[in-house]
Amino acid sequence: MTEQSPALDNLLTESRTFPPSEAFAAKANATADSYAEANEDREAFWARQAERLHWDTKWSQVLDWSDAPFAKWFVGGKLNVAYNCVDRHVEAGHGDQVAIHWVGEPGDTRDITYAELQREVSRAANGLISLGVTARDRVAIQLQMIPEAIIAMLACARIGAMHSVVFGGFSPSALRQRVDDAQAKIVITSDGQYRRGKAAPMKANVDEALAGAESVEKVLVVRRTGEDDVPWNNGRDLWWHELVEAQSDQHTPEAFDSEHPLYILYTSGTTGKPKGILHTSGGYLTQAAYTHHAVFDHKPGEDVYWCTADIGWVTGHSYIVYGPLANRVTQVVYEGTPNTPHEGRHWEIIQTYKVSLYYTAPTLIRTFMKWGADIPAKYDLSSLRVLGSVGEPINPEAWMWYREHIGGNRCPIVDTWWQTETGSIMISPLPGVTHTKPGSAQRPLPGISAKVVDDAGNEVGKGGGGYLVLDKPWPGMLRGIWGDDERYRETYWSRFSEQGYYFAGDGAKYDADGDVWLLGRVDDVMNVSGHRISTTEVESALVSHPTVAEAAVVGATDPTTGQGIVAFVILRGDVAEDQARGDAAIQELRNHVSKEIGPIAKPRQIMVVPELPKTRSGKIMRRLLRDVAENREIGDVTTLADSSVMDLISSGLKSGSDE
Ligand code: WTA
């Protein structure tokens, strides 16, 4: 009777497997031996991968785990991350190779070669230096998918400054929170952005965010939409093009320590305050580059790669910027939405640029399914070789559709599990090696160790389920939470402290073959269209509205977005219920959340209720609310302080829906 069980049943009986073709396997970057080689000597394996990069000084020790859970990889080694992503390819004679085929939403395009990228990044680095930015300073970047976003990130890396990229769709207060937490000195943004064919202002939001932000010295503004009346703060604001174009295109990169901080990226946790995930240089770049090479079978100079993520998320950091560029990729970067100006936009881009490696998210695949297979059928997708998926579990139906209608039943699909915290892909099939299985991420990559364990931390057997843990340190792992070592230990290392396991927050199970299936979050983090949003964050936003006394938020299964946000609110005593239950009032609450956090956090549904189900210790029982939100029979209510509450909620909802 439950809505969730069909997926589980399906998963338990999934027996289809797809072996690689012989032709693919013969030329694959990955080999079956790499698992055994890595198992034999994990550190030697990662050292071999690190050697794919250029080091100014070689490391003296591969891993120092003596201060666990704070890892040091390639200790004593020195490198420049931007040099590895740009200059070394130019020096090796590939300056004319296109690094980025950029496609703007309105249809404008720009091809950037590695030689040009080197000049642009050098200019931007010189520009930042002229503003007094030095190593370890924080630079916040809120930009849409334009080349300047990538150039700005690489310019920071080049001078050892840390970037903190904030997704373009985040609200002014979300931006402000991140700027304050990181004490950002510079903010880089644009005048406006194109969204579904229209120009929307961006700078005005940034101004609102930064009012009174004391750490911020300068705001750099990229001109994109060319608005006439961009609000301007003389003395603080500078046009990117005016600053950068005046700089020399020569800049000598300095080598930084392998553990020099590279960036902070904020992600939702189980409390309201986002966590600044800290990544460093040598180990991170090693794993990003190795995984991009092995998981996508990327061949420099031959493949055209396209990762559809936004640089505001970790996928954009590791699989648009660092991994691919370190591997001398030629890639598509697309500014816009998938249905602007028409629903075949992605397929048209693949056809035009002969994209061979395509990496996207299940929520988008399900959207494409909804739009219909006849749309991709109109385009020539024969250039495609490997298809990737990331961000949430991919249901077998979507996997099969992706394989058939996009991959022509010929492309291996790599379902890649990882997190902002892991920095790079951890669990995934290897194309050319793995016999893939619809819906399963299958097994940890060579050099990576993961387990499914029960409550007590014991590994479960085949067919068993529990929590996903990572039981050995890995090069790309987070080095902590910015400014909060205690929260780092508490969030990730306290759940299985006895065993010393990293707790990922995901449920998982082994099938009969021992392959791993990811089952979604086990904490209060929702996954909406592959975006992590915490229930508490949305609850705080709701209770900040004057009409709301209390709020509880759950993620309910949604056929397209994976989960949808459903909120239950208790109104303040002086607000007349029927009035507040009206459509306009509900709409106002939804908009309020969108304004507080960003449109991605807007609840799908808000229900006004007289009470919330709580345990005797006052904890909200979200499980029961999820039953209501998913239209299921309500589960066990015996631990409720007042077991009649659920009746009250259900009857209240009935009268609510009678209106
Ligand atoms: C989920 C995105 C199942 C998971 C790279 C994880 C997945 C969270 C998969 C991290 C996958 C990501 N299968 N679940 N292939 N990939 N997830 O930090 O719940 O934005 O913990 O990183 O997304 O989200 P984040």
TrEMBL record:
The entry marks the following residues as binding CoA, namely R195, R196, G197, K198, T315, N339, S529
Gene Ontology CC: one annotated term: cytosol
Query: Which residues does Mg(2+) bind?
Result: V543, H545, V548
Please name the PROSITE patterns in this protein's record. Answer: AMP_BINDING
Indicate yes or no for the key word Phosphoprotein: no
- Gene3D superfamilies to which the protein is assigned, alphabetical: 3.30.300.30, N-terminal domain of ligase-like
Instruction: Cite the entry's keywords alphabetically.
Output: Acetylation, ATP-binding, Ligase, Magnesium, Metal-binding, Nucleotide-binding
What are the AMP-binding enzyme C-terminal domain coordinates in residue numbering?
Answer: 537-619
Ranges in a coiled coil: none
N6-acetyllysine-modified residues are K619
Give residues annotated as binding ATP.
Answer: G391, E392, P393, D415, T416, W417, W418, Q419, T420, D506, R521, R532
Which cofactors does this gene product need? Answer: Mg(2+)
PTM comment for this protein? Acetylated. Deacetylation by the SIR2-homolog deacetylase activates the enzyme.
Chemical reaction(s) catalysed: acetate + ATP + CoA = acetyl-CoA + AMP + diphosphate
What molecular function terms (GO) are annotated for this protein? acetate-CoA ligase activity; AMP binding; ATP binding; metal ion binding
What EC number(s) has UniProt assigned to this enzyme? Answer: 6.2.1.1
Instruction: From the UniProt record, give one GO term of the biological process aspect.
Output: acetyl-CoA biosynthetic process from acetate
Occurrences of domain Acetyl-coenzyme A synthetase N-terminal (ranges): 33-85
Question: What are the residue boundaries of the AMP-dependent synthetase/ligase domain, all occurrences included?
Answer: 92-482
Q: What is its EC class?
A: ligase
Function according to Swiss-Prot or TrEMBL: Catalyzes the conversion of acetate into acetyl-CoA (AcCoA), an essential intermediate at the junction of anabolic and catabolic pathways. AcsA undergoes a two-step reaction. In the first half reaction, AcsA combines acetate with ATP to form acetyl-adenylate (AcAMP) intermediate. In the second half reaction, it can then transfer the acetyl group from AcAMP to the sulfhydryl group of CoA, forming the product AcCoA.
The family assignment reads: Belongs to the ATP-dependent AMP-binding enzyme family.
Q: Which PANTHER family match?
A: ACETYL-COENZYME A SYNTHETASE, ACETYL-COENZYME A SYNTHETASE 1
Could you identify this protein by its name?
Answer: Acetyl-coenzyme A synthetase
To which species is this protein native? Prauserella muralis
The lineage, from the top, is: Bacteria, Bacillati, Actinomycetota, Actinomycetes, Pseudonocardiales
Q: Gene name, please? A: acsA
